[in-house]
Write a structure and sequence with these properties.
This protein is α+β, with helices and mostly antiparallel strands. 45% of the residues lie in helices and 23% in strands. The chain folds into three domains: 6-56; 59-106; 115-194, Jelly Rolls (Sandwich).
């Protein structure tokens, strides 16, 4: 059998030949001359690898690789811990920030509320309008003490004398009128108090 061309042999070894071409090359490789060629071809590949053996057989610096792996794992652990801490700290900071802002706007939630005092002279009558829309009509010689801003959970004032109240309805924050001897708690109505 005739020896195939070098081009056909390489084409077959690189798996680019047709089935008929590959069959003819396989038939030739089964002969003595074909086996001798294959032996030289494989030996030439081996010789090439031996020539480049220095780069393939270089010693691996396992200590350096182990150190890099350890540092990568440590960084990963630190990141996970940092994310867990952030998952706890960030919501707490946000809640505190919102609470402090709300305290500044509403007043008196976390700090002592500021109070104002309104006194009506003898022979006069007047009215006092609160920030929630409630109104107190004060009679002569009456005194009312009220917060500049009502608290988050209640609307509390102190009365000495007589007043008629028209209270805005709010089921979440009752309106409380303190006077000597008791207090009145309402959610929204009109009433008169003489203390």
């Amino acid at each position: 059998m005739n020896r195939p061309s070098e081009e056909l042999l390489h084409k077959t070894l690189e798996n680019r030949a047709t089935a008929a071409e590959a069959a003819s090359v396989a038939e030739w490789l089964a002969t003595d001359s074909g086996q001798a060629w294959a032996s030289r071809y494989i030996g030439r590949d081996f010789d090439r690898r031996e020539a480049c053996g220095d780069c393939e057989q270089a010693e691996v610096d396992s200590e350096r690789i182990f150190t890099r792996i350890k540092s990568t794992l440590t960084r990963g652990r630190r990141r996970r811990i940092l994310f867990r801490v952030a998952a706890v700290v960030i919501p707490v900071v946000l809640v505190l920030g919102v609470a402090l802002r709300l305290d500044r706007q509403v007043g008196g939630i976390f700090s002592a509320a500021e109070y104002d005092e309104f006194v009506v002279d003898r022979g006069r009558r007047t009215q006092c309008l609160f920030q929630d829309g409630s109104i107190a009509y004060l009679n002569s010689e009456s005194k009312i003490i009220y917060p500049v801003k009502f608290g988050l959970f209640e609307r509390r004032i102190r009365l000495e004398g007589e007043a008629y109240f028209k209270v805005e309805h709010n089921t979440r924050r009752p309106f409380i009128v303190e006077f000597e001897g008791g207090e009145i708690r309402v959610l929204g109505t009109s009433f008169n108090v003489k203390a």
